[in-house]
């Protein structure tokens, strides 16, 4: 633990903590979850489709993308913006918190390998705290809200039902504030935001806020965990 803290402090002092998400991080790892939340009682019905798409917002997109890149069956995971207009879908404007966008990740997956319900279970277990409004870790603002963007009516219904299931079970100590919305348009983020966790493992921000999520994925979802991340192509 002491060596990990020293790595974080060194990274922060060298200015390696962040170029986007908050650098105001305490130099100590976040507490990782110790148990997985219950799986959804209802999942998307099996189809013959080889690919489907899910879009999740769970705070800074570096960690969200980084987690899903380690999930078997995920073909691609792209950091981006959704919930606002095209002409303001860039980091310089989104970071102000006034464009309506959320930092989000578009996940293309093989439903014969991993189901939409499992992706949701991973989201609520290791990706985000669904009880904090417009805040995840050190990052604050509407762009860091938790929101599930359904790409089909069935996805929207299943996400709504899952939140109701977790609420009725008292899974979390506070009310779930994660929204469920139909997806509008997803805008990929700038190239320097893509694959950020995989390419910046010594970043203080990553060590403190995001690597513990990947570690929790490996611990709590061993059958779904992929040791080598599936990186997105960057032009």
From TrEMBL:
Residues 1-22 form the signal peptide. InterPro entries: Met_Sox_Rdtase_MsrA_dom, Met_Sox_Rdtase_MsrA_sf. Keywords: Oxidoreductase, Signal. The active site is at residue 60. It catalyses: [thioredoxin]-disulfide + L-methionine + H2O = L-methionine (S)-S-oxide + [thioredoxin]-dithiol; L-methionyl-[protein] + [thioredoxin]-disulfide + H2O = L-methionyl-(S)-S-oxide-[protein] + [thioredoxin]-dithiol. Belongs to the MsrA Met sulfoxide reductase family. This is Peptide methionine sulfoxide reductase MsrA. The lineage of its organism: Bacteria, Bacillati, Actinomycetota, Actinomycetes, Mycobacteriales.
